[in-house]
Records
---
Amino acid sequence: MIDTSNYCSDGRQSQPLPRKAFYVKGCTIDLMYDTYAIEELNLQQLADRRHYIGEQDKRATKLMRERVVEHYRDGKSITELAKESNLSRVTIYAWLREFGLK
C-alpha cells in the first residue's frame, strides 16, 4: 500500500503545510512564498486560491480600518496613521467619517 497522504488528488506531491497555507480539494496551497509553482495549478485551484486571497484581503482591510480608528481615538494624527498603515490621508479621513469622527 502506497502512502498518499503527501500527494494532491491529481498525483502531484503536496507541499508541507507552512504558516500561511490553505487546503483546497486535496492539495495544500502555499501562500507564504512565491516559490509555489502557480502555473501548475488547474483552473479550479486558481479560482479557489484567488477567492481565498480576496477573503483574506477583506478581513485585513476591515481590521486595518478598526485599528486606524482605535489609534486615532488614542490620539495619533492622520499623518502618523497614514505613514504607519501605508494608506493615503484621504483614505484615513474617509474611514474616520464612516465612524462619525470627521
---
Amino acid sequence: MKSGLKGKSKMKLSTYNSKEKIFIDANIFIFNALDNPEYGGSSTEFLSRVENGEVNGVITPVVMDEILFKILVAKSSRHLDKVNIWTIKNRMRDAEFSKKVMPR
C-alpha cells in the first residue's frame, strides 16, 4: 500500500498485523480479481488474511460498487472493439454477451 502523505513510511500489505479495523480500498480487490501482475499476489494474500480473521478489514457500499463496476468494464473490454460505458450497457442486455463477461 502506498501512502500519499509526505514523511510517512509506506506500508506493505504483507506486514500489516494490527487487530484494529483497516479500510480496504477497491484497488486491493480489483488487483486480486483481475490478477494484476504487480500487486495481484500481495492483494490475494492480504484478502486471505482478512477472510481468515487475521486482519479486521472493512469496506463501504461505495467501494463495493466501484469494485463491481471496474471488474465489469475490464471483463467487457476483452470482448468489445469500442469500450465505453454506453457500449457496455447496451451489450450487457444481450444474454450471450452477458454470459461471456460474467459467467455463472
